[in-house]
Q: What sequence folds into this?
């Protein structure tokens, strides 16, 4: 399974609701639900990433995850699909380097 592809191929709920979750009007239940959702998505990503590449450390997996999510948020805000494609390629490259024990 290509985790990065799966995360970027579909509309990401993290990027879809990020702006709304950041507003003061959503400081209660909405933000709490959003945070639980983000953590749940990360937990699944983490488990699958460890299965796919057992040499990846927790901090390296978080870096790839955060990079993809950040690119998705920026890509959505700017209407720039190429930005997300570039981030996807970079994340895949980083995971491959890690698999080869040369993670940067």
A:
């Amino acid at each position: 399974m290509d985790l990065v592809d799966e995360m970027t191929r579909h509309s990401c709920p993290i990027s879809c609701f990020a702006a709304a979750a950041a507003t003061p009007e959503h400081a209660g239940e909405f933000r709490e639900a959003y945070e639980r959702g983000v953590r749940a998505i990360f937990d699944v990503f983490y488990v699958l990433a460890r299965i796919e590449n057992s040499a990846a450390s927790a901090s390296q997996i978080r870096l790839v995850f955060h990079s993809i999510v950040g690119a998705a948020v920026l890509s959505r805000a700017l209407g720039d699909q190429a930005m997300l494609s570039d981030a996807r390629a970079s994340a895949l490259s980083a995971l491959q380097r890690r698999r080869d024990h040369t993670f940067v």
In short: The chain has one domain: 3-99. Residues 3-99 form one domain. The chain has five helices and no strands.
